Amino acid sequence: MKKTLLLSALLLALGAWYMTDNDDWKAKVSPELLEQLETGQEKELIIVFHSQADVSASRQMATKEARGQYVYQVLSAEAAQVQSEVAALLRAAKVSYRSFFVVNAIHTKGNLSLVSSLAARAEVAQILPNPQVLLDTPQSEQSDVNEISFRNELEWGLEKIGVQQVWDMGFTGQGVVVGGQDTGYDWEHPAIMNKYRGWDGANAEHDYHWHDAIHEINPLHGDTTNDASLNPCGLDSPVPCDDNNHGTHTMGTMVGDLSDEDKHIGVAPDAKWIACRNMERGYGSPASYIECFEWFLAPTDISGENPDPTMAPHVIANSWSCPEMEGCNPDNFALMQTAVDNLKASGVVVVVSAGNSGSNCSTVNTPSAIFDNSFTIGATASNDTIAGFSSRGPVLVDGSGRLKPNVSAPGVGIRSCVRNGGYATFSGTSMAGPHVAGLVALLISAEPALAGQVEMIEEIIEQTAKPMLSDQDCGEFSGLEIPNAVYGYGRVSAIDAVHEALNTTGLNNNETANDLIVYPNPATSNVVFIKEQLNGDATFEVYNAAGQSVHRSSWNTPVKAIDISEWANGIYIYHLQGEGQLETGKLIKK
Question: For a designed S-S bond to 355, which of 88, 234, 391, 415 qualifies (C-beta 3.0 to 4.6 A apart)?
């Protein structure tokens, strides 16, 4: 062991000496970070590796548990192998660090000498700063909810999306786990205490239910020491705690019980919750967000050990943003994008608030709202108009031009719980996102086979949203078409989404063993169907959501390919019927 550390120290010293004559390493270092290092500063940084594991095969796995286990095993094995030599150098230099696997990267601190040695290594792709990020705070815009008649026992947002009708059907989020990463959570608040997965009604157990990604006092507060007493929750809190109110408010909208006004505040009141604190009094960083993403993929005990992907939630709400003015830019977008991609691949729905930078076009411009695999949510008022602050698409900051938001939800004048047993009314897309996370819980409680089927869940919510039009055109997206860059597919409808989930066949077929493989799914053009065992000739037919046949052919070989590029986007049902066999399932065209 001593020989290994001595060799690593020698290599580190040789690397620093070599860098005096070779500046190629500088191309891997963020210019902003390099400028700071060259003044003699030691800075927080993130080492990003070239190798990023491919977990796309998880889409062919039938259960959420299988998806989660596969993604965790592949990612953790890749990180352990690729990061080993860099980790050894950091240990030799006596530098503390945190290794990530949800994205193949390491978070640490270093000076110019250390960074030059690390950047010279072939396996290192980039070395980026870890900028501190300010919470996208709630807005002051209010809604006159008295203009419209709502049930006295429900907060207006719940009534607007039709949760009472879903509850009356017996679906209240039971059996579903929601997650939140935010400013923390007051777990003993009476509105959410009984919904915490770590509370059994008599005793609390926080292993696998809570993680604190805040290990230091944020310097942007102006504090000159890393004194934990400066934060009301301290650092590395062993129990759920909220140092801001924002997180507790969002959790109340997802799963909360009755308020002080005896109104229901939570969309899915029988779902359970787990959580991660990613901000220190409203300030986070890419590293703290990634740490929480990773914990949700495979929650750990309080010591951060023994990760278990079977304890992952079904959906997480992200009511935060990382703006360019705070240091997030196209150079480091890929970090969080990879984390979101991998978390979704594991079977977790990633709900993200669109941001409060409206009302101009292309104001959906911050991670994680900009990413394709984030389910991005705009905010509406009680009269179903878009909130003035709600950010619009399309996304231009990364050059993609992709349409955002995906859908919209109530986000103006939302009353929910806050710290110390209180209640407050906030406005923002931060309030809209939790409505949709709660809706995901309702869908899975209504149709448990949806668990882990992220693409299908998102498609159902989009296709059943109430279409909303706008006189605002953004780029190539007309406000008079669906979807548009203002509302997305429209304002979500819980009752319509649940009806769609229940009426769409193919999720649970107990009469036949379905071993038909579909790849890719969702798809945009060519789709391959694989059926290894065929009992003679069979008939293959595909129907659209209206029940109309869009494809019919015979099938007598193990592999069949069809072109769906001309089909409209949406959910399709396929049937393979032959002698003594019937298989059916869903195909999504995007």
Answer: 391
